[in-house]
Amino acid sequence: MRQSKMFIPTLRDVPADAEIKSHQLLLRAGYIRQVASGVYTYLPLARNVLHKIETIIREEMEAIGSMELLMPALQPAELWQESGRWYSYGPELMRLKDRHERDFALGPTHEEVITSLIRGEIKSYKRLPLSLYQIQTKFRDEKRPRFGLLRGREFVMKDAYSFHADQESLDETYNDMYRAYSNIFSRCKLDFRAVLADSGAIGGKDTQEFMVLSEIGEDTIAYSDASDYAANIEMAEVKTVYTKPDKPEKPLEKIPTPGQKTIAQIVDFLKADPVQCLKTLVLKADDEYVIVLVRGDHEVNEIKVKNLLGAETIEMADPEIIKTLMGADIGSLGPVGAPENIRILADNAVQYVVNGICGANENDYHYINANPGRDYRVDLYGDLRNIQEGDPSPDGKGTIRFARGIEVGHIFKLGTKYSEAMHAAFLDENGREQVILMGCYGIGVSRTLMAVCEQHNDDKGLVWPVNLAPFEVHLVPVNMKDEKQAGLTEKLYTELQKQFTVLMDDRNERPGVKFADSDLIGLPTRVTVGKKASEGIVEIKVRKTGEVLEVKQEDLSGTIANILAKLA
């Protein structure tokens, strides 16, 4: 492709609203442009890369027998009402009405549509198992779109769904998908980890996320320093063994703490240890309000609370409701004298706190020497806190360390969550009706593109892996007005295209501009046609290593092939 014909609007300056390196470079190098917050146009270079990622996905899906289809983005509300998610999915679901006032949603995912399809077509065990996937644009009304393609309101996704007669078959396909996803992200040259995860709004159990390691990742990965254990912090089980201090319980005492609301303020005001403090939160789990207690040096894990209660949704209670329920504002809450009609849940560590400090449910007052059982009730103990660095690894090997990660893939064993709600069933070998078992498997395709950019760049621009680069060779003549250079460039362009994908910079620009754009765009190799064109000699620069070598015209194709093979 001739660069003069290609739409590559490069920028010299860093866009003010681009916070992370990959977002900055994709904008500066002319790969994407923002249309609205969280909504982007993929320009020709980005579309080339997306196509290559999609090709890798299709090859790996085909290898495990998953077949491609394409479902509508516009989905009728009735299907979501059948599954129950029309009411539970939340404000991220983009809802709209047609001219007849019928409700629709723009699909963030397609469990309902695919289940509706299968229940009408699959009636016998003989047609199971079945695995189908699509690559399609999805929509989620993110509250805060950020980081370019990492968190958008419109994005490209690969979603697959599998259907089974028994658990053994579901397990087999789940494992096949795990291997396929590992292959996909390895082929995209990503440094990633598969971690235990929460199923979120999708539902189901036995789920893993594929996390690309990155400091700008929005998720925290807890991993062992002595094994391959890794989990999203939401799911990492705390196996710490606590001991109760050998000291007598003191009398409960209420003391004034004017203006002291946070744990840090209380610790400083009372010269106390955070371990002695109780952090009190009021959460709303579905339609029930609950009090949750953790130690002052710990953080409540809302996902663990949700799972313990078997709730569909969990959120912080509204401050005004908290004041009505508890009689005090946030910062003065505690379990002593809490309303009898509100359940109190506590993290396991709380029962080992002797002579604790907690809010008195009266603004600007706290209790000291509060002890569970004697001074306040706990209806249910459990693992309700986030794991911390230095905690024992849940698998019993080593201790926990943290890393940041970008989620690029997620696999679920859905079980019968959707098939039961939507009556998708089949007849087994004995003619008895059984509910179909389901699996669900997603990859953020556009997010994968950005994750690759985040891991593959330098101070000059993007540095694409060979198999994902929009072109393999950037052919750059220093001066197209020079007859020798122009002639050799055209000849090389014709020859190289027989073996490689080539972008030729035939623009009437200064050499410095061309070289800066070339580094910014990040193609694996650059062939510069300059002063030695008359001798049939050109220069090759390897983008990743910066290595430069002079090559004769007749040796050029072979040299490039060797370089690309080493980079692959």
TrEMBL record:
The keyword Nucleotide-binding applies. CDD domains: ProRS-INS, ProRS_anticodon_short, ProRS_core_prok. It comes from the Bacteria. It catalyses: tRNA(Pro) + L-proline + ATP = L-prolyl-tRNA(Pro) + AMP + diphosphate. It holds the Pfam family tRNA_edit. PROSITE patterns: AA_TRNA_LIGASE_II. Keywords: Aminoacyl-tRNA synthetase, ATP-binding, Cytoplasm, Ligase, Nucleotide-binding, Protein biosynthesis. GO terms for biological process: prolyl-tRNA aminoacylation. It is found in: Cytoplasm. It is an enzyme of class 6 (ligase). Residues 33-465 form the Aminoacyl-transfer RNA synthetases class-II family profile domain. Gene3D superfamilies: Anticodon-binding domain, Bira Bifunctional Protein, Domain 2. GO terms for cellular component: cytosol. The keyword Zinc does not apply. One of its GO terms (molecular function) is transferase activity. Its EC number is 6.1.1.15. Consists of three domains: the N-terminal catalytic domain, the editing domain and the C-terminal anticodon-binding domain. Catalyzes the attachment of proline to tRNA(Pro) in a two-step reaction: proline is first activated by ATP to form Pro-AMP and then transferred to the acceptor end of tRNA(Pro). As ProRS can inadvertently accommodate and process non-cognate amino acids such as alanine and cysteine, to avoid such errors it has two additional distinct editing activities against alanine. One activity is designated as 'pretransfer' editing and involves the tRNA(Pro)-independent hydrolysis of activated Ala-AMP. Homodimer. Belongs to the class-II aminoacyl-tRNA synthetase family. ProS type 1 subfamily. This is Proline--tRNA ligase. The gene is proS1.
